[in-house]
Amino acid sequence: MRVSNHAARLAAGAAVALIVMTACASPPASSPPVTPRPTPVITPDPHLTDPATADDIFRAIRVGSLPLHVTNATSGDPNSPVVKRINADIGNWPLIISEYRTSALLRESLKWDPKAPLAQGNPPYAFVGMNILIEFGPVTGLLTRPDNSRQKQAEGLVALIDPLLWPIEQRSLVPLPVKTPAPATAAASPPAVASPAP
Asked: What is the pTM of this model?
């Protein structure tokens, strides 16, 4: 007895027709495309750790737009409080970057007092941050107020070193504003009030 394949062919044809209809049908309604969130950009903290190096400071000044020229560098001996001193100039005005072994040694060696008045033999601008001393200007002759171009160069210098060494202390003929705030400190608690004796 011969069995007809007619039913099998009809079933196969119906399956093919269903596949074609499904493929040609309009796609189902979709939700709007998901916009990915931007990847957060982490701003690196440029602040150096104590002890900083004179080379770090010199490199930061070098990438600025100041007319910087290096003269030489010297190293301190093992017993010296100074590790390295870089002698350079900005627009033919002396720039000396001194790296001390520690910030305590710097303050002790120099008897550093940012409130002390400048005297002959001091540069017009001196900045201390951590273990680094930066002196800008000549140390001979009478102390006279720097002209506007020197003031602008000193401001440019502070703008480059301030983020690295804050809080910066300065002894300057014309004090310069620093832009980076000092780290927050805990507020002092109010004094305790004594209770009256019984």
From this structure: 0.69
